[in-house]
Amino acid sequence: MARNAQEIDRRRDRERRIVDTTRRIAEEEGWAAVTVRRLADEMGFSQPILYRLFPGGRDEIVGRLVLEGYADLTARMTSPDDDLRHLIAGYLEFARSNPAIYEAMASFRTDFAFAAGDTPESLVEGFAVLQRAVGGRDATERTVRAELLWSLLHGVGLLSSNGRLDDALDDARENTIADLFATPPG
User: Fold this and answer.
1) DSSP for residue 45
2) CATH code for the domain defined by 1-55
3) Minimal CA–CA distance to 16: which of 76, 56, 68?
4) Model's pTM, two decimal places?
5) Domain boundaries in the chain?
6) What CATH number does the domain located at 62-186 have?
7) pLDDT (tens digit, 9 = 90+) per residue, 52-95?
8) What count of other Cβ atoms lies within 10 Å of the Cβ of residue 22?
9) Nearest CA to 152 among 167, 137, 165?
10) How far apart are the first and last CA of the chain?
11) What residues contact 96, with CB distance under 8 A and at least 6 apart?
12) How far apart are CA 130 and CA 150, in angstroms?
C-alpha cells in the first residue's frame, strides 16, 4: 500500500512540475515555445512518459493550466462582501500579471463546456462571483449582467495584457466599469 501511495505522489509531483514548467515557458517565451518535446527535455524524461501522464499532450496540459487559471482568477475576484470594485481590480490585475495564462483562458479551445451541466467547478464558482457582484432583479437579469461584465472585463483584460491601453488610466477605467454595473436597473 505504501508503495502505491509513493507512486501516486510521484505521479502528482511530475504532473505538477510539468504544469509549472509549461506555465513558466509560456509566460517567458510565449505559447509557441511550449511543445511536448521541449517539456520532456526540460523535465529530463522522454516524450512517452509525458504522454503517459497527459495522454492528450499539450492540449491536456494547457487545459489543466486554464482550469487553474480560472481558480486563481476567482480567488482574486472574491471578497467577503462581493465588492464590485475589488472584483474588477482583481480580474484586470490577473490579466495583466499572467498574460500567457489569460490568453489561454480567453482564446484557446478547450474540452470543457461553459454554462452546462458538466462545467468545471472553477468556472461555475467564478461566474457565481460575477453574478453576486452585479446583482439583478432575478436570475435572468443577474446572468445577463454577469455575462456583460465578463465580456467587458475580457476585452479590457486582453487589451491591457497586450499593452494596448494606457496604464495611467487603469484606476479611472476600473471606476467607470464599476459605475456601469454598480446598481441594477429599475
Assistant:
1) S
2) 1.10.10
3) 68
4) 0.90
5) 1-55, 62-186
6) 1.10.357
7) 999 999 999 999 999 999 999 999 999 999 899 999 999 999 99
8) 25
9) 165
10) 62
11) 157, 160, 161
12) 7
